[in-house]
Amino acid sequence: MIESLLVANRGEIARRIIRTARRLGVRAIAVHSEVDADLPFVREADEAVCVGPANPAQSYRNTEAILAAAASTGAQAIHPGYGFLSENADFARTVEASGLIWVGPGADAISAMGDKINARNLMAAAGVPVAPGTTEPAADLTAALAAAGEIGYPVMVKAAAGGGGMGMGVAADEDALRTEYDKVRAFAERMFGDGSVLIERYFPRVRHVEVQILGLADGRVVALGERECSVQRRNQKLVEESPSPAVSPELRERLLAAAVRAGEAVDYRNAGTVECLLVPGTDEFFFLEMNTRLQVEHPVTELVYGLDLVEEQLRVAAGLAPTFDPDALSPRGHAIELRINAEDPKRFLPGPGVIKTWVEPTGEGVRVDSGYVEGNTVTPFYDSLMAKLVVYADTRPEAIARARTAVADFALAGPKNNLPFFTELLDNTEFTSGTYDTTLITRMR
């Protein structure tokens, strides 16, 4: 097993990784920005290094500062968490070139999946279903209009280098495409340094279903079930559950097999997620993208499979066998995750501030992965996620009931928060019936 691990992230995911590292006897090293010095993950690490000011470019994305921290503390490995540098192939290469262990997939796999057009083409060649779309970037508006004419409106306009729901727009006709193409291209150039644009069929009513994969040290790729992620605002997830209430046993078999083929196509190692769009009522699904990292919503998979995915990541990175038998995976029960964000519950706009009250719910089947405690300040410099409230029960109705109680018991004051939204959602008949899709929040609002 790895002996010392630098966690190149912050907040709840850094705290989460540190918890597993310490349980395994691995020395945990935190890096932090100046404004994060008082957060729990810094105190809970065995050692902590300040890597710069609040601006992520000068701290959590500062590769030189992070590598210097690894060298000064004698770290053997780096875990990037999610976001920041987690899907940066150049950083992964640099880490390994420095003689350190990278806790994630190989840089080539990250590169292959980081470009949405290249990823689509690779998946199609591997027999993974992809939605109708361009096989090369739409070089200009004329090319985009021609592609949309062949695909059929409405179309999705995507930044090829984008991710996390960023850099996307929907065009219902030519006039809208003219606007969206320029908007997405400008955003992509500004945010990702790559203005390449993909045109793809847009499905007005879809479900967002993803499969957790794990590429083992011996070369095998295994699928650890699916997660339903269709409760979204601005194309970003708020709720995840496993298993998906929309997936039948026959569809699950096809979905998981496709995800394994996707991983095998890029010689995948470590944890990753194959995201798909599922057309309601048809059992038809299409590859969306592959996230080459640990996902925010990994706890629901952990609870249903009885695993610690961070431990499995560390074992793969160390060249060790998994803790489980890949040929005898047996999911059980139902898990739901609610993302507790510092944002208002109506428009979902950020609302940072000092946490005056923070009392987490407890009890059977309740888990809270949090990045803050009472007295901390949620700053405007980073994502608004404060905690993940995760519940587990034998059945979906029991899990929903447990989630209702946990939300009511979560005492939180100071920053704006979306707990009132979850109170509303958990009583919404469309959600409780399991028939919802990605437009649910739009109809609720």
TrEMBL record:
EC nos: 6.3.4.14
Residues covered by the Biotin carboxylation domain: 1-445
Pfam families: Biotin_carb_C, Biotin_carb_N, CPSase_L_D2
Keyword Cytoplasm (UniProt): no
Protein's UniProt keywords contain Protein transport: no
Broadest EC class assigned to this enzyme: ligase
ATP-grasp domain: residues covered: 120-318
InterPro entries referenced in this protein's UniProt entry, alphabetically: ATP-grasp, BC-like_N, Biotin_carboxylase_complex, Biotin_carboxylation_dom, Biotin_COase_C, CPAse_ATP-bd, PreATP-grasp_dom_sf, Rudment_hybrid_motif
Keyword annotations: ATP-binding, Biotin, Ligase, Nucleotide-binding
Protein known as: biotin carboxylase
Protein species of origin: Micromonospora gifhornensis
